[in-house]
Amino acid sequence: MSRVEPRYPFRAAARGIEGWVEIDITVSPAGTVSDARVVDASPEGIFDRAALEAIRQWRFKPAFRDGRAVEQQATQIVRFRLKKRR
């Protein structure tokens, strides 16, 4: 599996907002994300776009059934946490 980290929205970072986005995805037989939709988020609407842009670039190991790669459904949570300054 290969993950691309989402870009932290500037306004959220400036305000110290952290959160998460739950996304239902469809993974193609090739391991790419062929469909993605937000099903829940906290706070709502703040991180949705950044999470979707990142997850569409993720790559997964394909699922196999009867020796053939097949489409699969999954749910992923993308978390947004600010790095602590020392």
Write the topology of this structure.
Blueprint: H1 10-14, E1 19-27, E2 33-42, H2 48-55, E3 63-65, E4 68-70, E5 72-80
Antiparallel strand pairs: 1-2, 1-5, 3-4
Could you describe the 3D structure shown?
- By secondary structure, the protein is α+β, with helices and mostly antiparallel strands.
- Helix content is 15%, strand content 40%.
- The chain has helices at 10-14, 48-55; strands at residues 19-27, 33-42, 63-65, 68-70, 72-80.
- It has a 3-stranded antiparallel β-sheet with strand order 2-1-5. Strands 3-4 form a two-stranded antiparallel sheet.
- The chain starts with 9 loop residues before the first helix and ends in a 6-residue tail after the last strand.
Q: How much of the sequence is in beta strands? A: 35-45%
Residue runs with pLDDT of under 50 for 5 or more positions: none
Number of separate helices: 2
The first-to-last residue Cα distance is 32 Å
Quaternary organisation of the protein chains: single chain
Radius of gyration of CA atoms, rounded to a whole number: 15 Å
Query: In sequence order, what are the helices and strands, one letter per element?
Result: HEEHEEE
In what order do the strands lie side by side in the largest sheet?
Answer: 2-1-5
User: Describe the biggest sheet?
Assistant: 3 strands, antiparallel
Average pLDDT figure: 95
Number-wise, the strands total: 5
Q: Estimate the helix proportion, in percent.
A: 10-25%
Could you say which structural class the secondary elements and strand pairing correspond to? alpha+beta
| Global morphology | elongated
